[in-house]
Amino acid sequence: MTEAAPQPAEVFRTRRLTKVYDTGKVKVMALRGVDLDLYESEMSVLLGPSGSGKSTLLNILGGLDRPTSGEVWFRDINLATLSDRELTRYRRDKVGFVFQFYNLVASLSARENVALVTDIAANPMPPEEALRLVGLEHRMDHFPAELSGGEQQRVAIARAIAKRPEVLLCDEPTGALDSKTGVQVLSVLDRINAELGTTTVVITHNAAIRLMAHRVIRFHDGQIAAVEVNEARLPPEEISW
Amino acid sequence: MRGLRALDRKLLRDIRRLWAQSLAIALVLAAGVAILLMSFGMHRALFETREAYYERNRFADVFAAVTRAPRTLLPEIRALPGVRAVEARITGMAVLDLPDHPEVAVGRLISLPPAGEPLLNVPLLREGRLPRPEARDEVAVNEPFARANGYAIGTVIHATLNGQKRALRITGTVLSPEFIYTLPPGGLMPDNLNFAVMWLPERMLAAAYDMEGAFNDLALALARGAPEADVIDRLDRLLEHYGAQGAHGRDLQQSHAFVDSEIEQLRNMAVVLPPVFFGIAAFLVSMVVGRIIELERSEIGLMKALGYSNREVAFHYLSLAALIAVAGIAVGYGVGAWMSRELAELYAQYFDFPYVIFANPSDAYAVSGVLGLASALLGALRSAMKAARLPPAVAMAPPAPPFYRRGAIDRVIAALRLSQPTTMILRGIFRWPLRAALTALGIAFAVAVLVSSGFMFDSMDEMMDNAFFRANRQDATLVPTRELPPVALDEVARLPGVMMVEGGRSVPVRLRHGHLSRRLAIEARPPGATLARALDADGNAVEAPSDGILISKRLSEVLEAPPGTVIEVEFLSGRRETAEVTVAGVVTQYIGLGAYMQEEALRRLRREGPRLSVIHVELDPARHDDFQAALKELPRLSAPVMLNRARQSFQETIDQNVTVMATIYVIVAVLITVGVAYNFARIQLSERARDLASLRILGFTEGEVSYILMGETLLLAIIAQPLGWAIGTGLAWLIVEGFASDLYTIPLVLERDTFAKASLVVLAAAAASALAVRRRLARLDLIEVMKTRE
């Protein structure tokens, strides 16, 4: 894919973004002035060792945390100025999350875990369709305890995309999975990105995953160390680690 | 043991962290300990005090009243098998004219033997001395009467003895085992101001009542193990021709019966209430310790890896329960001791004991403390054993997620098409059905406590309304010394302030049906009586037909004589004949046993002319004092019963006790509810924290998330309501059955209000508990949840 064409619209834009965790005695600089633009329909991978600030950035982008200073824009909304209530609203309407540990509700079946989100979303797809998209149409009525790790993560992805979010934020989505299952999950993410055009951000410390991204943003010590555009993306099936 | 010190520190920190939950449990436990301490301690104190008092002052075993029997009969009575001692006395009732006392007071007169002290029912001198045997103007009075009126030794009071007014000087005050609980005639509450018990020399009473060489009251002490019923039978036969009204044992002696019912109540309280509290506390401890152990799996694994033994691990968690118990027991001791003092004061007000024996209060402390501790340990035992048995390697690994799987219930829940949060709530309940059921049961008990105490107020109202406003509408009832001809009514009607008079007759009888019998008085009334009436089940006035008898419900039950049954009437005064009458109906009457006939029908049975033995009057409220003053000068009336006074004192007593009791029961119910609901909600929060945080990340608002958190608690609280109503109704029924005696029966009046109030209090307490836990939602760390595996 070539990037000579005009830049697509920005979805996220951060300027001089800093985050300081103040525990009273010690101050930890998690982000030290991050300037970053993420574009519509792009799949980007934030790569870096643990403690490099990538999760902090994802939390701020997802409306789970606020920056200490700097700007963070979602389209024309300045996330830094939103109230708790408005952030909840933002998460509810715009953002899909995928976590390392799936965070499924144990007392709800796969279908019900997805319905959890579609019940409160403005323009959701039916839970069954979301589960079909992740290839779990045969296990819709299973409870989390009856599903494998990869299947649970795919339910989590279905839950994240069912509301047709504008952005999909994935925090170490394959961190708890073996390579083979991890690849299955990645291909689901890839397909969602391609078919629905959802802006997708994947954070990982697994360098192999960078091969499937449009762009790779390397983090180090709270700053962006490098931004690489992938001229030749690999399909997830060809990735292994 | 040195290593345990770090564990002890962990224990203290655990308690500090869990202080609110621990406190809630400790208070429930404290309620059990306090009630047990009080009821057990007071039960023993009351029982042993009474036993000692009876023993030292030789309280009689059998009592009999006659019209007049010669003393020559006494050797024969003494010779009855099983009789240890006999005391023959002269007793009577007198109208009193008290200094500075506008109202008519009544005195019960009791003779003192000419030489020495009585053999039985020995009065206990509190102050001064007993009257000299030859004195004609000396009297000893019961101490509460003297105290209520502020009389000292030397005070002179006037009494009309058998029509003669006498001035009597108080020489001493006494207490007697016969009068621990003293009711005035026709009264429901002690009235020390207007009712006196008076001890006078036998010679003087014999002269006044024309009883020389005779007696009209008999008390017997029985040999240990002597069959009471046989002695009563033989005594009745001996006394048959002397106007005997039937001998009876202590069970029908008024004072004894009341003290006995109080002792029985304390025993019931000790047996019924504390187990409920201990059970709930044990359940709460088990729930909380169980959850802590689940959360501390890895610590348990670590402790074991470090070399702590299984026993030490179990001991650690049992210590947590023990610490909670110790706090609860300490609070329980404090509250229990305070409640015991309050109750002792209440008893001092109603019961006249010369002393109180607290035989061994440390027993009560030991028993309530040990049971409190045992229930907490028992609650923790299962979880502690589980922790002890956990292999270290397994313990260090995270627990398996709660295993929800598809089942019939899930299909039902899914078919209901509820929202996902509601589904989560329902699944939570069905996942741990026992825990949910016990939680609902605990809250239901709080409702039951309120229902089973609240109904009493309505019941008392109903008793009062029935007895004083619908059945007995007269202001006063006059009781002549002997039966009068009907013209006496005109005389009474002319007294100042009298607006209406109504005569009646009260005839002592024994009613028999098969082997069942009861002693009471048949009330005979003229047709169309409007003051004193009998009431049917709906509260409407009913009159006996000309050939039948109406009996009170309780009497119908104890005689097993429903309407239509033919029962035997044995007259216990005058000509002792027996007759048969048909039970024509059952009347609603809660106080005492009652039997009612037409005046004319009774006369036919007895083949007698018209007579009066009671006169009911309605008074002009403005002229009460004039009426009272006139009454003092009316020699032939021995005992006026002022119903206004009885109404007033009953109402006052109820009002006084209602507020205190209502407050106590509300506190108890709130304690239980908060203990159960708060702990349950805290465990909900602990178990669901991760789910709830995930939902917050997914965009659920705090309100939506707290619906899930509070929903299960509140849903169980709501489910608990009908259960609580049912248990409360059952308890109320048990209480009513337990109280039911020939003295009085309590109607089971369950108004919708009682249920509503109970539910309101409990639901409010449950909601407040859940809200207190909800505040912790704001502190959920969303990012932490996302990062960690449970």
Automatic annotation (TrEMBL), chain A:
Keyword Membrane: yes
A cellular component term, taken from the record's GO annotations: membrane protein complex
Similarity section: Belongs to the ABC transporter superfamily. Macrolide exporter (TC 3.A.1.122) family.
Stored CDD domains: ABC_MJ0796_LolCDE_FtsE (cd03255)
GO MF, one example: transmembrane transporter activity
Name under which the protein is recorded: Putative ABC transport system ATP-binding protein
Key words, A-Z: ATP-binding, Cell inner membrane, Cell membrane, Membrane, Nucleotide-binding, Transport
SUPFAM superfamilies in the record: P-loop containing nucleoside triphosphate hydrolases (SSF52540)
UniProt source species: Meinhardsimonia xiamenensis
Top-level division of the source organism's lineage: Bacteria
ABC transporter domain mapped to chain residues: 12-241
From TrEMBL, chain B:
One Pfam family recorded for the sequence: MacB_PCD
GO cellular component terms, A-Z: plasma membrane protein complex
Keyword annotations: Cell membrane, Membrane, Transmembrane, Transmembrane helix
ABC3 transporter permease C-terminal domain location: 276-392, 664-780
Domain (MacB-like periplasmic core) ranges: 437-633
Localisation per UniProt entry: Cell membrane
Superkingdom of the source species: Bacteria
Bilayer topology term: Multi-pass membrane protein
GO BP annotations listed: lipoprotein localization to outer membrane
Transmembrane residue ranges: 21-42, 272-293, 314-335, 364-381, 434-457, 658-681, 714-735, 755-773
Protein family according to the UniProt entry: Belongs to the ABC-4 integral membrane protein family. LolC/E subfamily.
Name this protein carries in UniProt: Putative ABC transport system permease protein
Native source organism of the sequence: Meinhardsimonia xiamenensis
